[in-house]
Amino acid sequence: MDQEKTGELIRTLRNEKKLTQKQLAERLNVSDKAVSKWERGHGCPDISILSELAGILGTDIGVLLSGNIDIKESEKGNMKKLKFYVCPKCGNIITATSEASITCCGSTLTASEPRKAEESEKLNVEDIGGELFIHSSHEMTKEHYISFVAYVRDNTVTVFKQYPEWNIQITMPVYRSGRLVWYCTKHGMMYQEL
Questions:
Q1: Structure pTM?
Q2: Which of 32, 44, 73, 89 could disulfide-link to 22, CB 3.0 to 4.6 Å?
Q3: Given CA atoms 86, 87, 93, 98 in this order, what sign does their dihedral have?
């Protein structure tokens, strides 16, 4: 850990939250001199308060310890590069427009990499008078099912949560172009272009 970089980051994040050193110190039950010392790179917070400090500053412990925030300018806001993080324990779905540090149910998640669906795996898509009807004969049991279907366009994403023992039947407006992305609990993430 580089104390100077970490201190600079603490100061930057504190200022973004519009907190004085004294206000931050009071929330952490430390002296404002301790906060000043950290920010000048002459010491570092005790390990026992790192989690609380990270929470107050809106970051995580890893970022505090590294002393820098990696902002991916080239990917910022690009929906075409949308990443899906799926928790294998609870099924939670989290999206980000670039790589992110995501945890759920105590585990660090990695982005699921979609693969192009084979012809036999594709979802059925029909134009029914200005709307798309998406359906599938995919198995939908508690052990094997599609947990969500997402429609990703240049500037939007729509996620349709699915549950075991439901039949996939989605109706949505027809758009110029986009990509369907879905997650099968046995075979992972797949996609098909529309």
A1: 0.63
A2: 32
A3: negative
The three-state (H, E, C) secondary structure of the chain, written as one string? CCHHHHHHHHHHHHHHCCCCHHHHHHHHCCCHHHHHHHHCCCCCCCHHHHHHHHHHHCCCHHHHHHCCCCCCCCCCCCHHHCEEEECCCCCCEEEECCCCCEEECCEEECCECCEECCHHHCCEEEECCCEEEEECCCCCCCCCCEEEEEEECCCCEEEEECCCCCCCEEEEECCCCCEEEEEECCCEEEEEEC
Q: What is the pLDDT of residue 159?
A: 93
The total number of residues written for the chain in this structure: 194
Using an 8 Å Cβ cutoff, are 171 and 165 in contact? no
Hunting for tokens 């100061």 — which residue is that?
11
Write out pLDDT tens, residues 44-68.
Answer: 898 889 889 989 988 888 888 887 7
> In the numeric block, which tokens belong to residue 158?
């729509």
Q: Strand pairing of 188-193 and 115-116?
A: parallel
What are the contacts of 101-110 at 24+ separation with CB within 8 A? 101/60, 101/62, 101/63, 109/85, 110/85
Q: Are 154 and 140 in contact (CB under 8 A)?
A: no
Please name the amino acid found at residue 180.
L
